[in-house]
Design goal:
about 90 residues; mainly beta; four-stranded antiparallel beta sheet; two-stranded antiparallel sheet; 1 helix
Length: about 90
């Protein structure tokens, strides 16, 4: 089992928050603060055979001051199950 905590901050108050495709999710707001969010997560992995493994991941997204100032500011749950086959 692995536990992780990711924290997200804006480098500059003039920054937006961007998607992985470098598209702004929200416009820059210098009054919203630098703290974007925290995302604790837990991963459980199991290697069933030499070639097959499984992982279960749960993560919770807690919005920070950047999102709280301008809703929507919902907490988000993320749950996934992975099956991996290695040749």
């Amino acid at each position: 089992m692995a536990l992780e905590l990711s924290s997200f901050w804006r480098e500059s108050l003039a920054d937006s928050v961007y998607s992985p495709f470098i598209m702004p999710i929200r416009p820059a707001d210098p009054t919203a603060g630098r703290y974007v969010a925290s995302a604790p997560s837990a991963t459980i992995s199991w290697k069933a055979t030499q070639h097959m493994s499984y992982s279960i991941i749960y993560s919770r997204f807690w919005p920070g001051t950047y999102f709280l100032k301008d809703p929507p500011d919902r907490k988000v749950n993320y749950f996934t199950i992975w099956a991996t086959y290695r040749f």
